[in-house]
Amino acid sequence: MNTEADYLNQYDASRFPSPLVTVDSVLFTLHQQALCILVVERANHPQKGYWGLPGGFIDMARDDSTRATAMRKLTEKTGVSPSWLEQLDTFSGPDRDPRGWSLTVTWFALIAWADCEPHIASVSDARWVPIARLADYSLAFDHQKIITAALHRLRQKTMYSLLPVYCLPETFTHGQLQEATEVILGQSIQRKSLIRRFEASGMFEETGESMATGTRKARLWRRKPGVDIHLFSRNLLTD
């Protein structure tokens, strides 16, 4: 065996037991002033009838990365690609899945309710659940632990960025962004601090249109094409 090609030609992957490897995603949206996540009822064993996160095994013929797996699975359930997708963590161990030693690469994503609700409503095994009502559901595997980690990450990033905008429609007002931010954080924020960040981010442009908000009209904004999220050094709650 003189070359790497010779080595690889004779390599026996079965010599090393492999864990079960999956990809799971926590998908957030906002609806009726509540932060919601998407859960899917398991149709097969193990833990048939429990509710879990959208995900599954990697399709090595179709997916060139775990990100591709996450995006494919989320698109299958929602009918659209999420506005924001970020890797969360890897959860692993011998006891998290009754089938054996397993690991899951997890992602968290944000999407606007209006973009995907028609498709979600047509899928019998998927539903949006407000975070406050999640305790009413029997969750599969260690998915509660994953959700808790994703919620913590979402709130941390919200304090240092304008991430909640990815839960909003394509065009939105300052007031809608403030409401989304407050729902995610679970507390009120200073409007002037949010507007200051909004202007400094360079992420947005006016549409030239407005919408009625009570007795006034509010300007409509949208994300600039190709502009990534801006991170701030100061916490929004102390800015």
From TrEMBL:
PROSITE patterns reported in the protein's UniProt record: NUDIX (PS51462)
Cofactor needs: Mg(2+)
Signal sequence, start to end: none
Pfam families in UniProt: NUDIX, WHD_NrtR
InterPro entries the record matches: NUDIX_hydrolase-like_dom_sf, NUDIX_hydrolase_dom, WH-like_DNA-bd_sf, WH_DNA-bd_sf, WHD_NrtR
SUPFAM superfamilies hit by this protein: Nudix, Winged helix' DNA-binding domain
Domain called Nudix hydrolase: residue spans: 18-153
Single GO term (MF): catalytic activity
Segments forming a coiled coil: none
Name of the featured protein: ADP-ribose pyrophosphatase YjhB (NUDIX family)
Species: Klebsiella oxytoca
